[in-house]
Amino acid sequence: MSIIQPCAAKAAYEGILKRKVNLNLAEFSDKLKDKGYELIAVTDYVMVVRKGYEFTIFPSGRVIVKDIDDLESAKVVIEKLHEDLGLYES
Predict the structure, then answer these.
(1) What is the pLDDT of residues 28-77, one digit of tens each?
(2) Residues near 40 by Cβ (< 8 Å), separated by ≥ 6?
Protein backbone atom coordinates (compact mmCIF):
# COMPACT_ATOMS: atom_id res chain seq x y z
CA MET A 1 0.00 0.00 0.00
CA SER A 2 0.99 3.61 -0.51
CA ILE A 3 0.57 6.98 1.10
CA ILE A 4 -0.89 9.34 -1.52
CA GLN A 5 -0.56 13.09 -1.02
CA PRO A 6 -0.51 16.29 -3.06
CA CYS A 7 2.86 17.10 -4.57
CA ALA A 8 4.38 20.58 -4.41
CA ALA A 9 3.76 20.90 -8.15
CA LYS A 10 0.30 22.03 -9.20
CA ALA A 11 -1.97 19.21 -10.45
CA ALA A 12 0.38 16.47 -9.28
CA TYR A 13 0.31 13.83 -6.56
CA GLU A 14 2.95 11.59 -5.10
CA GLY A 15 2.69 8.06 -3.84
CA ILE A 16 5.12 6.76 -1.26
CA LEU A 17 5.29 3.06 -0.45
CA LYS A 18 4.79 2.14 3.19
CA ARG A 19 7.60 -0.41 2.95
CA LYS A 20 11.20 0.11 1.85
CA VAL A 21 12.27 -1.04 -1.59
CA ASN A 22 15.26 -0.36 -3.82
CA LEU A 23 14.20 -0.81 -7.43
CA ASN A 24 16.59 -1.39 -10.29
CA LEU A 25 14.68 0.86 -12.68
CA ALA A 26 16.25 -0.61 -15.82
CA GLU A 27 14.92 -4.06 -14.87
CA PHE A 28 11.43 -2.72 -14.16
CA SER A 29 11.27 -0.69 -17.40
CA ASP A 30 10.72 -3.85 -19.48
CA LYS A 31 7.96 -4.98 -17.12
CA LEU A 32 6.13 -1.67 -17.58
CA LYS A 33 6.70 -1.63 -21.34
CA ASP A 34 5.09 -5.09 -21.54
CA LYS A 35 2.08 -3.67 -19.66
CA GLY A 36 1.56 -0.87 -22.20
CA TYR A 37 3.52 1.99 -20.63
CA GLU A 38 5.47 4.28 -22.95
CA LEU A 39 9.06 4.69 -21.73
CA ILE A 40 10.15 8.34 -21.80
CA ALA A 41 13.44 8.13 -19.85
CA VAL A 42 15.23 5.52 -17.77
CA THR A 43 18.33 6.15 -15.67
CA ASP A 44 19.67 4.64 -12.46
CA TYR A 45 17.94 7.42 -10.49
CA VAL A 46 14.63 8.08 -12.22
CA MET A 47 12.27 6.52 -14.75
CA VAL A 48 9.61 8.48 -16.59
CA VAL A 49 6.75 6.57 -18.20
CA ARG A 50 3.38 7.45 -19.67
CA LYS A 51 0.12 5.56 -19.74
CA GLY A 52 -2.73 8.04 -19.71
CA TYR A 53 -0.71 10.12 -17.23
CA GLU A 54 2.98 10.84 -16.93
CA PHE A 55 4.67 9.10 -14.01
CA THR A 56 8.09 9.78 -12.52
CA ILE A 57 9.34 6.74 -10.61
CA PHE A 58 12.25 6.63 -8.17
CA PRO A 59 14.21 3.59 -6.89
CA SER A 60 12.48 3.94 -3.51
CA GLY A 61 9.15 3.23 -5.23
CA ARG A 62 8.09 6.87 -4.80
CA VAL A 63 5.94 7.97 -7.73
CA ILE A 64 4.86 11.40 -8.92
CA VAL A 65 1.89 11.51 -11.30
CA LYS A 66 1.38 14.72 -13.26
CA ASP A 67 -1.71 16.47 -14.59
CA ILE A 68 -4.13 14.90 -12.17
CA ASP A 69 -6.17 17.10 -9.90
CA ASP A 70 -8.00 14.94 -7.38
CA LEU A 71 -6.84 12.58 -4.67
CA GLU A 72 -9.11 9.65 -5.54
CA SER A 73 -7.98 9.53 -9.19
CA ALA A 74 -4.35 9.83 -8.10
CA LYS A 75 -4.79 6.97 -5.64
CA VAL A 76 -6.24 4.70 -8.33
CA VAL A 77 -3.53 5.33 -10.94
CA ILE A 78 -0.60 5.25 -8.49
CA GLU A 79 -1.75 2.02 -6.89
CA LYS A 80 -2.26 0.50 -10.35
CA LEU A 81 1.30 1.50 -11.28
CA HIS A 82 2.66 -0.04 -8.06
CA GLU A 83 0.66 -3.18 -8.83
CA ASP A 84 2.03 -3.25 -12.41
CA LEU A 85 5.54 -2.97 -10.94
CA GLY A 86 4.72 -6.04 -8.83
CA LEU A 87 5.22 -4.17 -5.56
CA TYR A 88 1.91 -5.34 -4.13
CA GLU A 89 -1.30 -6.93 -5.25
CA SER A 90 -4.59 -5.06 -5.42
Answers:
(1) 999 999 999 999 999 999 999 999 999 999 999 899 999 888 899 999 99
(2) 48, 49, 50, 54
Please give the single-letter amino acid code of residue 36: G
Nearest Cα neighbor of 17 from 72, 86, 66 is 86
| List of residues 6+ apart from 41 with CB closer than 8 A | 47, 48
Q: Count of CB atoms within 10 A of residue 79's CB?
A: 18
Separation of alpha carbons 1 and 35, rounded Å = 20
The hierarchical CATH code for the domain 2-84 is 3.30.310
CA dist 89 and 71 (Å) reads 20
